[in-house]
Amino acid sequence: MIKFFRHIRKDLMETGKTSKYFKYAIGEIVLVVIGILIALQINNWNENRKERLEEQELLTQLESEFQTNLNQLDDKIALRNTILSASLKLLHYIDNPKERHNDSIIKYIGFSVITPTFDPIINDIISSGRVQLLQNKNLKDRLSRWTSEIIQGTEEEKLWVNYVSNYYAPLLLENNLYRSLISHGLKSNITGFFHIDKGVKTTLNLGDSKREVNFSEFLNNSQFESHIAQCAYTTSYINSQALSLRKRLVEIIDLIKEDIE
């Protein structure tokens, strides 16, 4: 093709057809420019197609991760509702001694020691720059705020874990309640809430303590009453934060689904 064009130019020059030569040269330049523009357009189309495929892969990955986060959060909210119910039952028993049942007291105290925490999958798309693949600005904005919202929403969880470890659990240890509490927890499979695989049960028989433990009398302990009141309040507050996080999760998942082709 190049030789063909050269032959035409040479023929025009030799025959003295200068004006036709310049017209031809201009036309040739236009054709070259058009060819370059077409090549660039094809290259841009290929790059854009590649980015859209990468975006779809990223969206699918994000949908799976955020759905997993939502499922975990729902489990933690449900568990905290059980803890809150147990705390309110204990406060009721404290206020109404005649309605106390020893087995129920052990079960409810066992729940009051549990400290569930939300540990979501955190994608590194913000720090890695992959977020730029997303075309949905609203989705990008929400993803960029997600990490800070997790920190804000789970801050109280860490404080509660510290409180139970340093203040509430020592009171239970001082009153020799732990063996009976753990034994009852194993029998009722409370630990099943925390297994990686649902339905797995920890098989261990500790037996009840041979020391005399009067759980009903323990409910008259003023420190215990304060701890249970704190448990009820903190669990309720943490769940209110968790529900806000859940709302964010659902909104993000909905935006992701809208963009998945």
Rounded mean pLDDT is 83
What is the general shape? elongated
- N-end to C-end Cα span: 43 Å
Beta strands, count = 0
Explain the overall architecture.
The protein is an all-alpha fold and about 260 residues long. It has one domain (about 70-260). About 75% of the residues lie in helices and about 0% in strands. The protein has 8 helices and no strands. The protein has helices spanning about 1-15, 20-95, 100-110, 125-130, 135-175, 180-185, 215-220, 220-260. Helix 1 packs antiparallel against helix 2 (about 20-95). The longest helix has about 80 residues, at about 20-95. The protein is elongated. The two termini are about 45 Å apart. The model has no long low-confidence stretch (mean pLDDT about 85).
Task: Give a topology summary.
Blueprint: H1 2-14, H2 18-95, H3 102-112, H4 125-128, H5 137-174, H6 178-187, H7 215-218, H8 222-259
Helix pairs in contact: 1-2, 2-3, 2-8, 3-6, 5-8
